[in-house]
Structure formats: structure tokens, C-alpha cells
Amino acid sequence: MPPRRLLQGIVQGIVVSAACAALAGCGGSADKPAAPRPPASAEQAPPRLPSGDRAAFAVLARNSGVLRAAAVPVAYGSATRIVVRRRLRVAARQVGRTHPRKAALRALRARLLPALRRAASPEALQDSAAKRIARDSIAAADGVDAGLRRYAASNPAANELLPGSSG
């Protein structure tokens, strides 16, 4: 066989071998799984909250804190009665003006509103009742805060409304 023909045969053999190897998947390990892709939902922003629920969530969170701040000094003995009645009445009006669509937020509103009104009542000025009202107020604020955390866990868009979030 002439050298030229031999060279062509070798080149053709190499090309055919390379093509077969590529088609057969040679050169890689079947042991390595392909890198998993995140689900398409991970690339999408969570659905926005309805505006009424968004506003209610923020108002409930803020005024739960107002209730707690008013009650803590009395509950722990550094004050004998709740003295920020005007601020509590304003908070109660703000909560009363909310109209959430979601049942969970309506339930939290129904828990916070009477607690705010009771803490702002004339009874809260009486030394004999103030400590009990303060403790009940803290318990109500704790319940509202826990409910807001549960709501935010099931409605990711609410997380941007929580203190310390960057939203």
C-alpha cells in the first residue's frame, strides 16, 4: 500500500473512531449527575398581597408593638398604670380602619382591637386592674405577633413588610 493511501486510511480511522466516541458519549463519566436546575418558581417573585391585606399586616404589626410598649412597664413593675391612653386610642382607630380580606388577618385584627381598647380604657388607670390588663395586653400582642409570623411564612410577600427586611 502506498504511503499516501496508508496515511488516508489512518486519518479516516481516527475520524471514524472520534465520531463513534462522541456518539457513544465517551469522555465523560456516567457517575456524575447533571447539576440540578432550580425550579422555575424559584426565579419568580412571590405574588403580591392584596392592598387591604398588605396595609392590615403593617398596621397590625406596628400597633401590636404599641400595645406591648405601653404594657411592659406596668407588667414588670416600673409603672403602676398604663399612661399612654391617647396613643393606644390612636392605635385602636388605625386597626379599626383596616379591612383585611384574609381570614387569618381578620382574626388577628379581632384579637388586637379589643386589647388596645381595654388598655386605653379608664379601668387601665386603676392601680388594682392595671397590672392584670398589662399582662393580658402582652399576651394578646404575643398572640398577634405569632399569627403575623405564621401569615408571613405562608405568604412570602408579607416578609418585606416585617421590621428589618429590605423591601
Radius of gyration over all CA atoms, rounded: 33 Å
Overall strand count: 0
What class, by secondary structure content?
mainly alpha
**Which sheet architecture does the biggest sheet show?**
none
Which regions contain 5 or more consecutive residues with pLDDT less than 50?
Answer: none
The pLDDT mean sits at 83
Number of helices: 5
H-E string = HHHHH
Helix content: 55-70%
Task: Give the CA-based shape.
Answer: elongated
Distance between the first and last residues' Cα? 78 Å
Structure at a glance:
By secondary structure, the protein is mostly helical. It has helices at 3-24, 51-75, 85-96, 103-119, 127-154.
Overview of this protein structure:
- The longest helix is centred in the C-terminal third of the chain and has 28 residues, at 127-154.
- The protein has helices at residues 3-24, 51-75, 85-96, 103-119, 127-154.
- It is elongated.
- The termini are far apart.
- The protein is mainly α and 167 residues long.
Considering the chains and any ligands shown, give keywords for the structure.
62% helix, 167 residues, mainly alpha, elongated, 5 helices
Task: Tell me the layout of helices and strands.
Layout: H1 3-24, H2 51-75, H3 85-96, H4 103-119, H5 127-154
Helix pairs in contact: 2-3, 2-4, 2-5, 3-4, 4-5
